[in-house]
Amino acid sequence: MQSIQHFIQNNSVIVFSALLFGAVSVLVYLVLGAILKRGDNPLRDRLRGGKREELVRPEPVRSSQVSPLVQKMTSAAARPIMPRQGEEQSKLRKKLSHAGIYTAAAMQVFVGCKLLLLVGGLACGFLAGLSFNDPTIRLLLITWGGLFGYLLPGLWLSLQIKARQRVLNSSLPDALDLMVVCVEAGLTIDAAIQRVGQEIALAHPEISRELGITHMETRIGLSRVEALRNLGHRTGVNAIQSLAAMLVQAERFGTSIAQALRVHAESLRLKRQHAAEEQAAKTTVKLAFPVVLFIFPTVLVVLGGPAFILFFKSPIFQNQ
């Protein structure tokens, strides 16, 4: 305890800057969680006996759930660095849609958080540099702090995109199996998409929401081809894009949609099995380094330790 207190007293500026940056990061994370996460719970709604149509939420965040004060703060913070060109805004909006964020204020919140974390990182770097007399080290700390704060939202968004695409890839074969059952039972493809989106909401809410959005697009007058293509572009998953292209071709050439869905589901399941086998084959190579560096030395110490102790206590060393 005394060593810890001595370290804190000697490096109080560094500790304070680290705590300040952590507090700012936690605050931004809580704000993003409150704004960008859904407030509904499909399991709770179903247990309460709600309507089945209400289990599918096409939008993760509604405009009414975003506080006007938060909108004003983020819009004011995002105004200096908001992308001006339509191409850059389209790329950012596409990344947000791949992460499952469809609210209109998402782009402003994201850009505003980048600016806030940039300022927080610069402040933390400046406070950390006060404990050093070298101006080069201070400049490096300020630069690294600002760069880390500016890149942190982008890193979070990339992780969200990868996690969501992984969930969609794992849940797509189950959705296709249910869709095959619905189509073979006599439902049209639009009715099958709606029914599968309702039935799979508890097990796989992400793909259920995407199917719900696709069904709503067809209801407002968009063609089935455009709705399916939007589904592939909106998610950014190659398997869903190939599914949309397969459904469009099956409808155009008049082939059996149920058979096409069954073959596509089987191919996706086979790809997932091959991916699992690939990861299992890499396990032995990945375990080589921890085994050699940590497990083997421990085993040698445990097994050879008593022998070495007895060897050093032998009369050979005692006579010397």
Identify the notable features of this structure and list them briefly.
320 residues; Receptor-associated Protein; 2 domains; mainly alpha
Summarize the structure.
The chain is mostly helical. The chain folds into 2 domains: 2-166, no CATH class; 168-272, Receptor-associated Protein. It is 79% helix and 0% strand.
Topology:
Blueprint: H1 2-10, H2 12-36, H3 42-47, H4 68-78, H5 86-98, H6 106-129, H7 135-184, H8 189-199, H9 205-219, H10 224-235, H11 238-253, H12 257-312, H13 315-319
Helix pairs in contact: 2-6, 4-6, 6-7, 7-8, 7-12, 8-9, 9-10, 10-11, 11-12
Low-confidence stretches: 51-65
The amount of helix comes to over 70%
Relative strand content: under 5%
- SSE order, one letter for each helix or strand: HHHHHHHHHHHHH
Instruction: Count every beta strand, where a strand is a DSSP E run of 2 or more residues.
Output: 0
Largest sheet: none
Assembly annotation: single chain
- What is the radius of gyration? 28 Å
Calculate the terminal CA-CA distance, rounded to whole Å. 43 Å
Secondary-structure content class: mainly alpha
Query: Count of DSSP helices?
Result: 13
Tell me the domain tally.
Answer: 2
Shape: flat
What would the average pLDDT be, to the nearest integer? Answer: 78
Question: Could you describe the 3D structure shown?
Answer:
- By secondary structure, this protein is mainly α.
- It folds into two domains: 2-166, no CATH class; 168-272, Receptor-associated Protein, CATH 1.20.81.
- It has helices spanning 2-10, 12-36, 42-47, 68-78, 86-98, 106-129, 135-184, 189-199, 205-219, 224-235, 238-253, 257-312, 315-319.
- Helix 6 packs antiparallel against helix 7 (135-184) and helix 11 (238-253) runs antiparallel to helix 12.
- The longest helix is centred in the C-terminal third of the chain and has 56 residues, at 257-312.
- The radius of gyration is 28 Å and the shape is flat.
- It starts with a helix and ends with a helix.
- Residues 51-65 have low confidence and may be disordered.
